Amino acid sequence: MSEQHTQQPLHAAESRGAVFMQWTFFENQTQSRSLGWYIIASIIALGFLTYAIIDNNYLFALIIVLLAFIYYTQARTKSLEIPFILYATGIQIGDRFYLYREFKDFAIVYEPPAVKRLYLHSKTMVLRHELSIPLNDQNPIKVRKILLDYLPEDLEMEKESGSDTASRVLKI
Fold this sequence. Notes:
The protein is 33% helix and 26% strand. It has helices at 35-54, 58-76, 140-148, 162-170; strands at 19-26, 81-87, 90-93, 96-99, 103-111, 115-122, 130-134. It has a 4-stranded antiparallel beta sheet with strand order 1-2-3-4, with helices on one face. It has a 3-stranded antiparallel beta sheet with strand order 5-6-7, with helices on one face.
C-alpha cells in the first residue's frame, strides 16, 4: 500500500509540533512582459496555426487555439497566495500537509536574483515527483539547516529544473 499525503484541517496544526519557519508564495509567478514579447508570441502562435491549417492538421490547430485560450485566461486570473510552513513533523504547502518521511530529499538552488528555489523530491507522488517552492526573501541557509534535521540534501542538483528555467526565460 502506497503512502498518501495527509490532508488535515488547518485547525490540526497544534498536533504538527513547533513552527520552525513559514512564508507565502504565489501559485503562478508574475512575469513582466513587454509589448514586443506579446507581438513575438502572437506571431509564433499564428505561424503554427497557419502551418496546421495548410497541412490540414486540424487537431494541431485546435491544440494551438486551446493553448492560446488557456494562456490568456491564466494571465488574466489573479494568482493565489500559498502558505508554506516547516513544522517539527512535516511540511504544509497550501492546505496539504506532508510528513517528512514522504520526501526522499531536498535541494536548494540559490543564484540570486533570478533563481531562489527549494526542491522537495517525493518518494510517493507519481505525477509530481518534484515540488518546486520559491524561497522569495527567505534565508536559504536557515531553510537548509532546518531541513537537514529531517531530510538528506541532494548535493548533485546545482541548477534549477528545466521546466523552471523554461518558465523563467520564456516568461510563461
